Amino acid sequence: MTPVLHELRGRDDRLRFSPFCWRARLALAHKGLAAELVPMLFTDKSPIDFCDSSTVPVLKDAHGVAMDSYDIFKHLDAHYPDSGDGLLIGDAHAEARLNFVKVYTEQVMAVGFFRLVALDLLAAIHPDDREYFRTSREARFGMPFEEFNNVEAARGILDSAFKPLRGLLANQPFMDGDAPAAADYLVFGFFIWAHIVSDTSPFGETEDAGDPLVQWRERMMDLFDGMARKAPRASEIPQ
Amino acid sequence: MTPVLHELRGRDDRLRFSPFCWRARLALAHKGLAAELVPMLFTDKSPIDFCDSSTVPVLKDAHGVAMDSYDIFKHLDAHYPDSGDGLLIGDAHAEARLNFVKVYTEQVMAVGFFRLVALDLLAAIHPDDREYFRTSREARFGMPFEEFNNVEAARGILDSAFKPLRGLLANQPFMDGDAPAAADYLVFGFFIWAHIVSDTSPFGETEDAGDPLVQWRERMMDLFDGMARKAPRASEIPQ
């Protein structure tokens, strides 16, 4: 069977912005696997009723079901170790250190992206999902979207969070060395999420083409025949 | 030949606090290798005249010379891959991600430790080295030691830098998973540096025994028969 990847969709079916679903998409492309991409809404999870998860991504293939982007990486390495560009994760030390990249990305960097694009994100979400999304996220933020969305605060968080990424990428072209793998996809998921829903750059009013992190983002955009670069953006699709 | 590790010494020869030398010491212990520890001063580098480095650690063994703690890790993995507790670094993905831990540790976290203990460090340094150390470091800080040493500023930097370490160590006992390896030694070098030169805790006035990072530090202190815990501290040795 062709692998099936269940993803979140936005107000238009071409808008697929979930950072976690992008991790899975990029991991499939890394393995050279084509997948059927099936959309889901927050408020209608019937497409993934067949499994135990209430969130996407969910991957179903001939080898079974993998839920959560990280488990999808593990599933793909277990069942397609040598396919495409090879292992996503690597040996035991590599996996332990990937966990650090994951925690760093999700607990330090992600909130900066979220505060940068929160209102654009809300507008990109399917109308049926917006009330659920607003209510659940505002409970988590402890403030309304209109206050949480704060470009200045966001850039402060991101400038600080980007520092070690820049330090690393000044010395090697990808997080995972000479070629991209799991760590690159973990981090890039948030860049492509913000890129699809919003025209506001995480780097400020003007981007510095000499910035190693800008250069890395461009390299990531180019991967797999420009897969991320070609993804339709909210600003390109009429409301 | 017995491996020889050239290290920085302090005002007393028992004071060996360099974070980079500790990385090398821990890596040797990881491999189960005993080494002769040879002291050096900033102002008398004659002990390492035999090689191209002007800094310690320098390791010399039957296989050659390795300069810089990171190169010592690579040297030990190359020549003693299966000794003791096995590989320090791991596969190519593991090495690429270790570079992120290294950059994070040195470019984000280290300055917090330095601002916490700068004056205690100056007092722990050999009297012959103090003028050199003060002058060279003040040029780098852009301010005098007395201003750079700022416990409140230090704790702010460390609280923030510790966040993803805590997030990781809440889920796994060591940076490198079930057992310590290169990432743990990279990070711990700064903890043991501060611990030896100063009685000021990086965690604040009272340490929380339930904090996963405090628990990790204690596990690191216990390694190799309590090697780090047994290291003489400046406060135990009269001026």
- The CATH topology annotation of the largest domain in chain A reads as Glutathione S-transferase Yfyf (Class Pi), Chain A, domain 2
Count up the helices of chain A. Answer: 8
**CATH C-level of the largest domain in chain A:** Mainly Alpha
User: Using DSSP, what is the number of strands of chain A?
Assistant: 4
Distance between the termini of chain A: 36 Å
> What general outline of chain A do the C-alpha atoms trace?
globular
Low-pLDDT runs of 5+ residues of chain A are none
Structure description:
Two copies of one chain form a homodimer. The longest helix of chain A has 33 residues, at 92-124. The mean pLDDT of chain A is 97. The first copy, chain A, is built from eight helices and four strands; from the N terminus they run E-H-E-E-E-H-H-H-H-H-H-H. The relative contact order of chain A is 0.15. Helices cover 54% and strands 8% of the residues of chain A. In chain A, helix 3 runs parallel beside helix 7 (182-197) and helix 7 (182-197) packs across helix 8. Chain A has two domains: 4-79, 3-Layer(aba) Sandwich (Glutaredoxin); 92-229, Glutathione S-transferase Yfyf (Class Pi), Chain A, domain 2 (Up-down Bundle), CATH 1.20.1050.10. Chain A has helices at residues 19-30, 69-79, 92-124, 127-141, 145-148, 151-169, 182-197, 212-230; strands at 4-8, 36-40, 58-61, 64-67. Chain A is an alpha+beta fold. In chain A, strands 2-1-3-4 form a four-stranded mixed sheet. Chains A and B meet through helix 3 and helix 6 of A and helix 3 and helix 6 of B.
